[in-house]
Amino acid sequence: GEDVEQSLFLSVREGDSSVINCTYTDSSSTYLYWYKQEPGAGLQLLTYIFSNMDMKQDQRLTVLLNKKDKHLSLRIADTQTGDSAIYFCAEGGNTGKLIFGQGTTLQVKP
Amino acid sequence: SAVISQKPSRDICQRGTSLTIQCQVDSQVTMMFWYRQQPGQSLTLIATANQGSEATYESGFVIDKFPISRPNLTFSTLTVSNMSPEDSSIYLCSVPLAVQETQYFGPGTRLLVL
Questions:
Q1: What's the pLDDT tens digit per position in A32-82?
Q2: Given CB atoms, is B1 within the 8 Å cutoff of chain A?
Q3: Minimal Cα–Cα distance from A31 to chain B, Å?
């Protein structure tokens, strides 16, 4: 079945760039998403990319998609302590259902 | 983005009881989804709430345990029946936006079963 994999933990220093990686198996995925979840909070949609794109930039966020390798990454430039959270990648198709990765905990050290 | 609200935001319940969670959206949406996030885990889709017909459940989830209602295009309920401590989770509803096909989530309902 479909599967989405992420590394579980990333630690960076404030001001550095963070890169969170994700791999997925469903080649029919139409959209790929990045969500942020802060402690005790809900799920915030950060950004998404259509499967026919290979890059999307939105302020400090850059999403790269390698469809051939089924690899998705989220780069956060100038990482701040407020970026500390769990980041989930998810894939979805035309059904609207999403399959989530396990989440990557980003720790930002001052 | 859609405004999605859920009630209750959190609850503590006794085993064997049932809890109904409400999800309200500020615009009409065709599909609504219910997810579960167990402690320290990722999100798993429970079911798709279809307006005017029965919900469609994912593998491992059954109607008797998680009955769902969808009386109109802006509202849905999920009931967690005959609860056990294993049902302690965050329950979230989500809706896709037709134009962008993006999915937004409600704030979640934090359930603790004792």
A1: 999 999 988 889 999 999 888 999 999 999 999 999 999 999 999 999 999
A2: yes
A3: 8
